[in-house]
Amino acid sequence: MDQQHRGDVGSAPGRRAARLSHVGLEVPAPPAWMRWMPAAYVAAVLLLEPVTPVQWPVSFLLIALPVVAAYTLSPASVVGITVFAVAFEAVLAGTPCCAGRVTNDLWERHYVGAYISTALVGVLGTALAAHRQRQEAHLVRANSVAEALMHTLLPPVPHKVGHVLAASLYRPAEVRTLVGGDLFDIRATGAGERAIIGDVRGKGLQAVRTVVDVLGSFRQAVYDPGSLQQVAARMEGRMAHEAESILDDELFVTAALIEHDPAAQLVTIINHGHIEPVVISRGEVHAVTGPPALPLGLGALDAERPVAYTHPFTRGDVLLLCTDGLIEARDPAGAFYPLLDRLRHRFAGRPAPEPVDVVDFLDTDLPRHTRSLHDDVAILVLTPCGDPQEVPPTAVPRGAA
Asked: pTM (2 decimals)?
């Protein structure tokens, strides 16, 4: 898989609960044609030499060989290629069978100039190769920092959080980047398991800053006493302060807030302009619809408070939360990814899947639909676990204002 951040569930105790692809932490390998370019260049010179007139010194083309090698080889290798090029020029100039000449041109002044020029270009190629390696090392260090930031912002979701099993997937749209504008998290609290998935408006470093603020406010608010509506209100206030601090009147985050009550076997949902959650239940797949609310950060535009709605969530049910990068992924013909249809094709009429089964399916099915992503993709999948009869009643009333 491409760089992606995953948390998953395994039936065996030894199975890892989370993993992060390290593709982004390695120097990208050059394509095969580029690796073979120096050899192909020498072969082209050998093919041209016997078919061109004697007065055409085709061996002079070897002057460029060190620079060709600098694209893929190390500085030491470029030095070796330079020595080889000078020696090969001498062979072509001084060997009658190769040059097609009766006279020996080994020390003819034009060929001597070619030797010197090749040596100078070799020095330049060596410097270019050394600079390329320094840039590659800088890229690895930068990606290492990005990985640490990724783990800080979106730590791998544990395989079990409170009374739910969980799995997650994060796939950035830009190749070999690890941080984007999508977010998710889940926490076990006294009110039950509370989760969020969201998509920040904008891209780049400003989007990352907003992700930090949203996740920070969520992780603080979910542990405070109060209902899910109060969690949303605290996050709305944090977004308003953030918009004021950066002078951005259009700062907002689409988000879905989820609260799982294991005793009542319900999930409470507040949808702030986000994609509707999807439930896989008893072999059926359907979206969970409810009253919409404005995205976080735009609450001042509506005097009404966000309305929470509930849905049954029992053993065997699977709740899928995702960002719009998933459903807006296009195939070569321009068609969007048919999420519900694909889930029905895979899971309808079958035993209840584990969260990791859903994540693995989407992780392999999405690349079949689209060759490249134009937006980040974040997925969070939950399913209840344990015996609901053993769960004490929640200490936080669902209808608290």
From this structure: 0.70
